[in-house]
Amino acid sequence: MFLSTSTPNALEIIEKVNRNLAKNYNNENQTLNFFHRNTAYADFDRFEAKVTKASGMRKKQHEGVNKSLDSLTQNIINSNTVYFQDYLGDLMVENRKETKLNVLKATSLVDKSKNFSLDNVQTKAQDLILKYLDTTLTYKLKTGIIKVQDSLSLKSNNNDEDKGNDEMYDVKNLKGETHGILHDTQTYDDSFLKKIIDPELYTYEFESVTGFNGELVYIIEFEPRKAKSKYAGKLYIADETFAVLKLDYDYGKGKRGQKFNLKLILGVKYVENIKKGTIIFQKNADSTYSPKYINKEEGRYFYVNRPIKFIENSREKDKVGFNFLIEGSARSKQELFIISKTVLDKNAYNTFLEPKDVPYQTLKAYDASIWKSYNAIEPLEEMKRFKSSEEN
Question: pTM for the full model?
């Protein structure tokens, strides 16, 4: 029981957190059995695409491609793009640089007919135009005054269409995102947690004392101290060990992530306007602490307005140009649930050959039986309601 007549000093508590990091946390020589979920959303407020120049295209073709682009525009604006990626695996961590990932099971829940990522939208618009070009020729591809490609072959482009059909995930990418979100919880100098408990970067204020996961904890509020510090939130710190048990964070007042506005020069604007999350630690049998659950959400506004031009590599040098404008927001959410943690088996680590890619199961609707026998994260309500139009 906490009894005191004076308010605890928040800065002194943070200093004790830093002094006890090595004793409270171990980031190396461990195997983490985990469940990871990625959720991605895209909302398009504005989309315009129109062929503006078609020197080698007949009038009916010109009208046809613009009609197709209008149809694509309506589909994109009316779409509600959402994508779910789940995978279960073992992350073997030797040290901060040496890790191996064994993916045990992976799924993807997406409506491919409504998969309108920013890159995908531009590709779909370009593909509509490519149908009306001479596939026996090559083209210079320009966006504004910038040359993108000197000799684009439409034949090779068409032959590549089916290369992405294999339902495989790149293990290096999966490991990178899993290890990346885990790195936020570690105590290296460049980790997210270490920056939050740096008094040079943040100011702290004692809020109250409460119980959390069976331990008495101090709740400490933090806010940015310097211009480069971006976050505000709360730390839950154990009274006895001075370990961080929970961290809630969001952008501080008036703070944002990366931002650039090159509308006049390149027709591009980008603002990172959401970054928030929660990290929860669990006490181990050896009295150290390790992450149990991590939730990280990011969002960004985007605006792209650029002309794209195809110029024939021929005597006629016919040109087809179209304007492409898109504006909207994208949001992503990562969740990492650590099911169990064990000491790294060095022999198993050394003999395990990490594959280049792993297969995944594509789902067209939420299926509760898929992860029923695993200790997975509770599905989102929108996942339960999800149904691909491809099923119909």
Answer: 0.81
